[in-house]
Design a protein that fits this description.
The chain contains 22 helices and 16 strands. By secondary structure, the chain is α/β, with parallel strands linked by helices. The structure holds adenosine-5'-diphosphate (ADP) and zinc ion.
Amino acid sequence: MKEVQKPKKPLIYYYGIVLLILVLFNLLAMPWLAQRQVRQVDYGTFLEMAENQELGQVEVQQQDNQILFTNKDNTVIYKTGMMPDPDLTQRLADSGAVFSGEIIQQTNPILSFLLSWVLPIAFFIAIGQFMSRKMMERAGGPNALSFGKSNAKVYVTSSQGIKFSDVAGEDEAKENLSEIVNYLHDPGKYREIGAAMPKGILLVGPPGTGKTMLAKAVAGEAGVPFFSMSGSEFVEMFVGMGASKVRDLFKQAKEKAPCIVFIDEIDAIGQKRDGRLSSNDEREQTLNQLLTEMDGFEDNTGVIILAATNRPESLDPALTRPGRFDRRVPVELPDLKGREEILKVHAKKIKLEDGVDFGKVARMASGASGAELANIINEAALRAVRDGRNRVSQADLEESIEVVIAGYQKKNAILTDQEKKIVAYHEVGHALVAALQNHSAPVQKITIVPRTSGALGYTMQVEEGNHYLLSKEELENKIATLTGGRAAEELVFHSVSTGASNDIEQATKLARSMITRYGMSPDFDMVALETVTNQYLGGDVSLACSAQTQTEIDRQVVELVKRQHEKASAILRENRDKLDEIARYLYEKETITGEEFMEILNR
Ligand code: ADP
Ligand code: ZN
């Protein structure tokens, strides 16, 4: 595999440059330096020294027409030009000088070769080796063969490790996982009775609900090392690397057992192998290696693999069969109580004013994930700092919900008067329809301050408590509420605007689900016409019916939405005075609370 050596390339350049410098140095600088050591003198000096018997060695270079000679101690080399001097030989014999042929190469040639070539090269190679080791270490492995080694992050247990108490809500998941903690504390108890702990546990849920946190908390509670790696990290550029990473990860884990191995985004490697042409060879090899490793180690070795995904339906069935990831722990979006607890956990890190009502904040932030709630707390703290306060207030928290959900207030977005009026009527239209249908939740807040997300205003509806079931009437009312904005525009301005595009989308989606998935159309009875393929990420659906049925579905969706739209229009027409009154109030104030709204409505 040639590619594996690729990272050595910089070193090859390095050696090349070193060699070049050496050659140049030896060719140019050395002779020049040698030259410098030779002292040029005139012939008179030579004669004088010869007379005074001060010569050491002498070399007559006929072809260069020069004489090289040294002093008695051979410490200085002199050079002089040749003069036509017939007495030269006699003179030299008298001076007692030694005739020599190699004054310049006085130094041992082997030694000089060693000094000018071998030693520098050895020196530079040593530096090169050192550098290469450094580079490899930085790349994550101890030596040049470190490719395919897992660079799993190892979190050795520390006193500040995450505990179950740091993960708020998610009680079911925690209960489920506490068995693993027990097992890691005392595997013997399980071995004795012959019970095998599941090797793999799949944490399933939408993003930001605390799956990674839960995995860390299991390790933290059990006091064992925690290896973490993301599925996408396995899939490398080079075929075969992912598989060897898996091998290495498990080798490390077995050495450190008992321990937790956490694989995030396992769907990146564990997708169904469907034999499509586009299938990824590398991914398949990695998955096969993972399966082999999971089968390879005995029950009760103390290695527990936790994996997280938000696309459980896309996982290969081989991965979820018994003996592998056979236990599934749902980690859902927090409910009202869960949201309140999560807010409280994160609020411990910030300074709060007295009397902050987390229950109200949790109610306003319906549908928010744990990560979003953590973000809300942080945004509130940032807002307090921005305003020069040193404590976070209730208003900070409420405003930051809107920031997290709809983006920041757009300070410089200036709506024309007419636009502002339309937005006010639109939002009050939603709110009025919602409030006047007795099944709908009351509004919490209406605002027509534009947001960076593009919303020109919105109505914050609040459910009191949790709803797990929605009746057909409730769904219909929701659709009516969604059409309420457009209905108000039509009623007041006799024209329509683009402001309702999001409402239209949502209303259509709801109506469609009622007919194709919830069996709420009399014609289709309890037949599933659509299946959800991606429930935690947006909920894509795929149709499962004939073309004729599709046509019929479309017709019924249109009819359903139309009926609700008419209902909303009727409600608003009957309450036109309230619509005008509240819209005017909103137009002036830009933001009104649920209480103000209900007060005007019930006046
Ligand atoms: P996931 O792995 O499900 O995408 P994470 O575990 O990475 O989500 O959570 C992201 C962040 O969200 C955490 O660091 C934490 O601050 C916050 N968070 C999510 N769920 C919770 C929870 N149940 N309790 C406390 N904090 C939570
Ligand atoms: Zn709207």
